[in-house]
Amino acid sequence: MSKGLAESRTELAMSELVAEPRPKPAVPMKPLGIGSNLLGYIGIDTIIEQMRKKTMKTGFDFNIMVVGQSGLGKSTLINTLFKSQVSRKSASWNREEKIPKTVEIKAIGHVIEEGGVKMKLTVIDTPGFGDQINNENCWEPIEKYINEQYEKFLKEEVNIARKKRIPDTRVHCCLYFISPTGHSLRPLDLEFMKHLSKVVNIVPIIAKADTMTLEEKMEFKQRVRKELEVNGIEFYPQKEFDEDLEDKTENDKIRQESMPFAVVGSDKEYQVNGKRVLGRKTPWGIIEVENLTHCEFALLRDFVIRTHLQDLKEVTHNIHYETYRARRLNDNGGLPPGEGVLPPAPASPRPATE
Ligand SMILES: Nc1nc2c(ncn2[C@@H]2O[C@H](COP(=O)(O)OP(=O)(O)OP(=O)(O)O)[C@@H](O)[C@H]2O)c(=O)[nH]1
Ligand SMILES: [Mg+2]
C-alpha cells in the first residue's frame, strides 16, 4: 500500500494545482498596467515548480522524539520507523543485536532520499521516565532538551552573520507512549502532556497494542481521548490551529477516531506469504507491524510523514518556537543573554539616499 515519499501531500497538491501545464513565456512579461491584456498569461503558477526545485536542492529537516515509561518499546519503534517503508530503500541500517535500555537523550539521524527529495530525519530517543520513587518534575530534562533546541535556533537567528540556512534541530513532533493498561492514564502521563503540550506537538500513542484485544483497544482509545479532553490537554493536531474548514474536517476525524494510534513495533523481519515483513513472532502467528488489520503503525507513519509533516514543522515554527522566542527576547531586552544589548541608535539623521 505504501508509495514513495515523493507522493506526499505537497506533491499531490501540486499536481492538482498545475493540472494543465501552461507555456512559459520566453521573455519575462512586463507588469500589467491599466488597459493591458488582462487575459494574458503571467506565469504565477510556476511558483510551485520553482518551490519544488528549491526543496529538491536543499532538502529538509524533520525531527521526531519518543517519550514514555521505560520498556514501552520506544527504541524498538525508532528502529521500526527506520526499517519500515520510510527508509527501506535507502536502508543501511543493520542492527540485529538486542536493544539496550536507553540511559540518555540521544539523537539518531538518517538521510532519506526519495524521488530526488532529501529528508534528514532525526529521531530523538529518551530514557524511560517515571521509574523513580519520586517522579515529580521528571519531564524537566525533556522540556530542557526541547528548549535548548529553540535556544540554538534563536542564537543563530539573531547572529549578525547568520547562516543562509539555519540547521533545524527543533523537535517537530513528540510521540508520547501510553502504557496499554486498558484502565486509565496515569497521573504522570497527564502531568507530562499538560506541561509539554505547550512547548511541543504531542502525538499520543498506545504502545504494545498487540497485548490488547480489539474490543479492549477500542475502549481504551475512547477512554484516553475522554481523559485528555476532561483534563484540558491539547494534543496535535490542535483544534485552535486548524486553518480552514477542510483542515477542521480532516483533523476532527483524526482527533475523534484515530488518536491515540495503537502501535506495535519490531525490528525483526519474517517471511509471510513470500514477502519479508517486519513483525513479532508469537505462538499464534506473526503480528505484522505494517499491516493495518494488525495495528496502526502504518497509519501513524503516514500521518506524521505523508500528510502532516509540513504542518508539524509550521506549528513548531509559528507557534511553539515563536512563543519561546517572544518570551526570551522580552526577558532580555531584545537579545538572548550573553549577546549584550545594542546601544541606542545614533540621533543623527540618516544619510540621504538620493
Ligand atoms: N509485545 C510487544 N513488545 C514490544 C513492542 N515493542 C517493543 N517490545 C519489547 O519491549 C521490550 C522493551 O523495548 P525497548 O524498545 O527497549 O523499550 P524502551 O521504551 O526503549 O525502554 P527504555 O530504553 O528503558 O526506556 C523489548 O523486549 C521489546 O522487544 C511491542 O510493540 N509489543
Ligand atoms: Mg530505549
From TrEMBL:
Pfam families: Septin. Keywords: Cytoplasm, GTP-binding, Nucleotide-binding. It is found in: Cytoplasm. Residues 329-354 are annotated as: Disordered. Residues 343-354 have a biased composition (Pro residues). PROSITE patterns: G_SEPTIN (PS51719). GO terms for cellular component: cytoplasm. SUPFAM superfamilies: P-loop containing nucleoside triphosphate hydrolases. One of its GO terms (molecular function) is GTP binding. Residues 58-331 form the Septin-type G domain. It comes from the Eukaryota. Septins polymerize into heterooligomeric protein complexes that form filaments, and can associate with cellular membranes, actin filaments and microtubules. GTPase activity is required for filament formation. PANTHER family: SEPTIN. Filament-forming cytoskeletal GTPase. May play a role in cytokinesis. Belongs to the TRAFAC class TrmE-Era-EngA-EngB-Septin-like GTPase superfamily. Septin GTPase family. This is Neuronal-specific septin-3.
